[in-house]
Amino acid sequence: MSKSTEKAGSSGRFGTRYGVVVRNRVRDIDKMRTAKHECPRCHREGVSRVASGIWQCRTCDAKFAAGAYTPASKKAPALMSATEEQGE
Predict the structure, then answer these.
(1) Structural domains in the chain?
(2) 31 CB contacts (<8 Å, ≥6 apart)?
(3) Chain segment 7-40, per-residue pLDDT in tens
(4) φ and ψ at 2, to 5 degrees?
(5) 49 with 63: CB under 8 angstroms?
(6) pTM
């Protein structure tokens, strides 16, 4: 029997198929998707992914749309500032 999948992580299910780059991308995406994230409303670590792009906080029950794999995408600060400028 082989050793457990320390380096492979969640992409160990693919074995030797699909290439190392693809398996590493899948591993990194799975880590981001399943990590604990901060809620934008109550600021607690309780946000989990419901579906692709839909997130829900376990503590305050807030449901919101965000990125597919993380609730805080790289473009979020720019979009927030653009919407604040339009509202003023």
Answers:
(1) 1-34 (no CATH), 36-88 (2.20.25.30)
(2) 9, 10
(3) 778 888 888 899 989 999 999 999 988 888 998 8
(4) -85, 165
(5) no
(6) 0.68
